[in-house]
Amino acid sequence: MTPTSTATANPTPAEDALRPHAEDAFAGELDALAKGDDRPRPPRWNLSPQAVTTYLLGGTAADGTAITPKYIGPRRLVEVAVATLATDRALLLLGVPGTAKSWVSEHLAAAVSGDSTLLVQGTAGTSEEAMRYGWNYARLLAEGPSRQALVPSPMMTAMANGKVARVEELTRIPADVQDTLITILSEKTLPIPELGDEVQAAKGFTVIATANDRDRGVNDLSSALRRRFNTVVLPLPATAEDEVRIVAQRVESLGRSLELPPVPAAAEEIRRVVTVFRELRSGRTEDGRTKVKSPSGTLSPAEAISVVTGGIALSAHFGDGTLRPEDVAAGLIGAVIKDPSADPVVWREYLETVVKPRDGWKGFYEACRELSA
């Protein structure tokens, strides 16, 4: 019997999307900011640079609508990033994993263009067509090279419409494909030699790229390409309070999106996970009295968000509805132990010398000890 499919070609409504695009998830905030925004806007921008900054960092719209912070960090970095987009320079967001590079990139594109979907995802297999254009080969064979047979890339679409194009994980892309950007960023044009034609960038076009500090040496940017970017380095959260706030905010957002049952009293375990990550990452305890070894992984806020979200799912579906140490222990150990030969030694030493004698951490120690045995 032939199985039947219930899938349709209809687009998923924003309210049913597992992860709505920023411009859909925060449409109310963007609309409120736009209505009360009387400051000058660069060509084809939906908001002024000041309103874009308010959208990223949080505040209040003119009509009193509360604008939730999308990024928690130095205001000046966001201002520099937004100011860069208002010039003819491209923006490179650089940082270690988990510093919200992709998150900031998406929200900047949503606030500036109202469209964060013009995205090239960088991988070792990213081809030149992903940056430039491809072909509908059926039409190409039937009709020969023509505009109708051409399949535009997100970059070409952004150029033609004066929007923001995003390139994720730029240093993961092969060097020869990276250099496709040089002509685009310097001449603001994309040649189509097969047609003797070109696409010129409309006003408002710009590029936001992200790159991982830990990927230096994978596919380093050429000096010619790097010169065409203004680089903004996004740091890890400066304080434990900032990191706890970031993790709590994103966990709450993810919980709503995944429709997880609400879990009370999660703050204590969030702070505990953040404390462990910060101590192992920095190589010393929070009070500065004890040095500890650092594991091979980055232990970023993104991983802390994943650990806590997984713990909430365990607590909601297999526990008593309260987030407890045993709910986060397995995910935390998995985040710490990336190198199976060296990291278990680092983790056991931290567990015995730091976690075991710490007041109020007995339950956490026992949960981790049981899983680490």
Fold blueprint:
Blueprint: H1 22-25, H2 27-35, H3 49-57, E1 59-60, E2 66-67, H4 75-85, E3 90-95, H5 101-113, E4 119-121, H6 128-131, E5 133-135, H7 137-143, E6 150-152, H8 154-161, E7 164-168, H9 175-178, H10 180-187, E8 189-192, E9 197-200, E10 206-212, H11 223-226, E11 229-233, H12 240-258, H13 267-282, H14 301-318, H15 325-336, H16 343-355, H17 362-372
Parallel strand pairs: 3-10, 3-11, 4-7, 7-10
Antiparallel strand pairs: 1-2, 5-6, 8-9
Short description:
46% of the residues lie in helices and 12% in strands. It contains 17 helices and eleven strands.
What's the helix-strand series?
HHHEEHEHEHEHEHEHHEEEHEHHHHHH
What Rg, in angstroms, do the CA atoms define?
Answer: 23 Å
Any low-confidence stretches, pLDDT <50, length ≥5?
1-8
State the helicity in percent bands: 40-55%
Main attributes?
single chain; 373 residues; alpha/beta; Rossmann fold; 5-stranded parallel beta sheet; 46% helix; 12% strand
Could you describe the 3D structure shown?
The chain has 373 residues and is α/β, with parallel strands linked by helices. It folds into two domains: 18-233, Rossmann fold (3-Layer(aba) Sandwich); 240-372. The protein has 17 helices and eleven strands. It has helices at residues 22-25, 27-35, 49-57, 75-85, 101-113, 128-131, 137-143, 154-161, 175-178, 180-187, 223-226, 240-258, 267-282, 301-318, 325-336, 343-355, 362-372, and strands at residues 59-60, 66-67, 90-95, 119-121, 133-135, 150-152, 164-168, 189-192, 197-200, 206-212, 229-233. A five-stranded parallel β-sheet has the order 4-7-10-3-11. A two-stranded antiparallel sheet has the order 1-2. It is globular, with a radius of gyration of 23 Å.
